[in-house]
């Protein structure tokens, strides 16, 4: 069975779990699977599984488990009622491979759904590319030398300043260094590679173990959870940005280092203000990366810079999606085709056109025009556009996309992978109806075509469009030029002269 469900007999119930089923199968969200991996690794010690209702309540109100052990953040899984009714739940990854089994001792329910509770055990020998460099927490702990252990959990590449901070603190403490890169962003492997590339700059014998610790909404709890994970791996000290109450180890703020005239990073107290040179802000770094400029030697090493560029390629080397939305007859397909031609002539990217009509005959064959089917249609288009974007292409989509939530979902999927521009083709209904190229408005008005957008089905006008183009006022060329100008302004395409 590849999809979510129960075995052998799904109950179909949606509100309360019915009689017990022995085993259900469930594919958790990626963030939930990351928590499963941390549970299996022992990185959430002392947790061995998903929390019961009582433990969650206790963590939320007292930041302690039911038995008074400090714990900062609920670790929960959300499943449908029929899955929560099973005694055991086999968790699978998106490809359908078994990852773990939850012994579902005390399922419970709140406003957000049903939650299994009980210990989690590995389904089989854990696999995966990073598995070799990610041993369980107890093994890491056992292999660390018996002295202070200074941990850091970077979410971005470490450059000269951060590396100098780590070296300074580890020297002061005479500590072993433990770097636990958080594999939480869109390109976790590249982050891990960037940290591995920093190894020559880290104290000898530094241990580097990637951890799939997903960011929590509350920054304080997130930092505290990271501290618990660091402690589970054997850390005695942690470098963190601010003090942490109830942390299970010593928390140290990074020392203030400044760049001196010789481009060395030294304690601020040792460098007179007149001897200091400016560093690079986060925005400054982003601007250099976006434009593809070299990173200065005083900022990082060439090896780390190379990995940083993999993590954050220049805008012109990344993909983007333009989503045209608007009423039937507004001009979406016409503008999408013209934009495709313009980009194909002048830009290096492969262009993929995902036009409403064509998509409905292929990718979305069989879907109708109910709200649910439109939603499926638009989100499928978004999925493909995000893949095109991820691989450096330009995707141009032209569905009506009448619902705000679906457009927003497409934006989210795509922005994880590259650029996203929402263009509202805001041609008034009267003009679209006057054009009535396919005679559909006539049929809709006569009642022979039901659920027609703008007539008998809604169109939610975007209030978040990057551009609104009324083709009753703009020529096709002018409209396309506006889109190209916006892409240029945002750095996604270079200048060219249209002929
Ligand atoms: N009921 C109804 N409402 C709207 N449109 C209809 C309908 N029935 C058929 N058509 C034709 O289908 C095209 C719209 O498909 P989309 O995939 O773009 O629509 S949606 O985004 O899923 O809402 C649309 O194409 P465009 O005119 O290019 O927009 C119509 O030709
Ligand atoms: N400035 C303009 N931009 C785009 N289309 C225009 C413009 N002026 C007139 N049209 C006409 O409007 C119609 C729009 O149809 P189409 O592009 O299929 O719209 P949609 O894909 O939004 O349903 C075409 O016949 C096109 O020639």
Automatic annotation (TrEMBL):
Q: Return the SUPFAM superfamilies for the record.
A: Nucleotidylyl transferase, P-loop containing nucleoside triphosphate hydrolases, PUA domain-like
| Pathway listed | Sulfur metabolism; hydrogen sulfide biosynthesis; sulfite from sulfate: step 2/3
Question: Start and end of every APS kinase domain?
Answer: 318-470
GO BP annotations of the record are: sulfate assimilation via adenylyl sulfate reduction; sulfate assimilation, phosphoadenylyl sulfate reduction by phosphoadenylyl-sulfate reductase (thioredoxin)
Q: Where is the composition biased (Polar residues)?
A: 1-16
State which Enzyme Commission number(s) the record gives: 2.7.1.25
Annotated Gene3D superfamilies: P-loop containing nucleotide triphosphate hydrolases, Sulfate adenylyltransferase
Q: Which InterPro entries match?
A: APS (IPR002891), APS_kinase_dom (IPR059117), ATP-Sase_PUA-like_dom (IPR025980), P-loop_NTPase (IPR027417), PUA-like_sf (IPR015947), Sulf_AdTrans/APS_kinase (IPR050512)
Q: Where is the signal peptide?
A: none
Q: Where is this region: Disordered?
A: 1-23
Reactions performed catalytically:
adenosine 5'-phosphosulfate + ATP = 3'-phosphoadenylyl sulfate + ADP + H(+)
What's a single GO CC term here? cytoplasm
Instruction: Identify the NCBIfam families for this entry.
Output: apsK, PRK03846.1
The record, for PANTHER family, names:
SULFATE ADENYLYLTRANSFERASE (PTHR42700:SF1)
Function of the molecule: Catalyzes the synthesis of activated sulfate.
| Name of the protein in question | adenylyl-sulfate kinase
